[in-house]
Amino acid sequence: MNPTRSDFPSASAAGPRSRRHTAVTGRDGRQAPPGAPPARPATGHRILPRVMAKAMAGLAAAAGPALAAPGSAELALQGSGPYHTVHLPMALHTRAASSDFGSLRVLNARGEALPFAWRELPPPAAEESRRTVPFFKQPGVTRQPARPPAWVLDTRQLRGSLQALELRLPEGRHGAYTLALDSSTDLQHWQSVLPRLQVLWLEHQGLRLEQASLPLGGVPPGYLRLSPIEGSELPPLAAAEVTALSSVEQAPALQWSEPIAPSGCGPRHCDYPLPAQLPLAQLQVVAHEPNALAEVQLLGQEAAAPAAGPPHGLRERLRALRHKQRPPAPPGWLPLASTSVYWLRLPEGEFRSPALPFDAGVWPQLRLQTEGPITQLGQRPPSLKVAAETRSLVFLARGPAPYRLAWGGDERQAGAPVALQQLLPLRRPGEPLPADTASLSLPAAAAPAVASASSPAPVPARPAVAPGLWAVLAGGLALMGWMAWSLLRKRPPAE
Fold it and tell me: Is the peptide bond before 3 cis (omega within 30 degrees of 0)?
């Protein structure tokens, strides 16, 4: 039999409270207790704040890189040109959009971009050294396999690559000898350098003929062995001199900041704000009281602090193992270096701890953390001095003056640098760069916004926001308002 409408209870029969027999489920999927009101669906007025917050966060993140205010400064030319070298001041890092000066361009009075190239570091300089090395006589072996006696020369104190060996005989001795020359770094494994060579010292009618210089071919320092070839004797030696060639890296020029005072201190640490976009090359901790000594750890603040938790990944595990004896780094900070900081006033003079080298990383803030109280370095907190490598560029002046160096704004409008060889096609490798220079005078607003050791830290001025960015933000707010109006129109009426 097919059921009819009258076979089912009507809504009125079930009563207006029949819904109390229905399990009420909350947003987390659990059943609410009996009598609880039913959960309302997530309507527009509930999700709108979350949507607006996420949208505004996205707009702020997208607008962040564009907040670097564009600027420019006039270049004062020295010399007739047309090539000029510009040494960029440290203060320019705080104005550029990135630490690599990707937004720089050189302009003439018509606003035309001029070609420029970054000045390269000079190649390593070759340094030759000559040193008399100790030598020892190695006894021969008569049993099989037989081995004749040999001279073993110790060249470990030399640097670079070995180029030549000069032998000298005792006074009044002469003769001709056929030898073999081998090299080793551990006295166990030998490699042939010259399998057969001849040295001689001859005299006749007051004349002397010598052939005692042996080429080494750039073998690494270690040990050399001179062995006689069968049928020859081992020459008596009075001295042995080795010539080595090493390359010396020329240190780049550095620019140092004024002493930076801490922005805040705790019982065992002080925090120091650094100039924006500064690639840190060296750092000096300056104590203000003599005979101060402390073991310190330097930490760098990450741009975005990660969530707290145990270290994970190979790099984090190695860092935790290396610094296991140190206080753990707080979340958002990375250990950079550990050293001793001191200022000692001794009878023979004053001694300060040397500067620490860094790998040109960019850190918004550094933390100086001591193993004991920070007052080990004096009642007055220490200050920091930071250094960055001096960046230099060469540009070709064309068109009317004045010439300007511009930065910031849209990096797509920047004049891309060219290779130095392309900019100077007539310059031969190794020749000096043009001697004519151009000096850059930055406006006062381009000074680094860091605290000096003699004044409190100023509040850095927020760079001006471009009009286009304001238009984007206004459009985003208008879109959010339209979404709110649409959602509220569709909201069902309350029961």
Answer: no
Structure tokens at 146: 């037989």
Question: To which CATH superfamily is domain 254-304+335-389 assigned?
Answer: Galactose-binding domain-like (2.60.120.260)
List per-block mean pLDDT (blocks of 10 residues) for the chain, which spans 495 residues: 40 39 42 47 47 47 48 88 90 77 87 89 80 92 80 93 92 87 93 91 82 91 93 90 86 89 93 90 93 92 55 45 58 90 92 91 91 91 92 91 82 71 86 86 55 41 51 78 74 56
Q: How far is CA 147 from CA 74, 76, 95, 152, 224, in A?
A: 77, 75, 72, 14, 16
List where CATH 2.60.120.260 sits in the chain.
Answer: 254-304+335-389
Q: Find the DSSP H helices in 269-352.
A: 313-322
Cα distance between residue 222 and residue 372, in whole Å = 45
Cα–Cα distance for residue pair 185/35, rounded to 1 Å: 88
Residue 322 has φ and ψ, to the nearest 5°, of -65, -35
Q: Which residue shows structure tokens 């090493």?
A: 246
Strand ordering across the sheet containing 116-118: 113-114, 105-107, 403-407, 71-78, 437-440, 83-87, 392-396, 116-118
CATH topology of domain 126-248: Jelly Rolls (2.60.120)
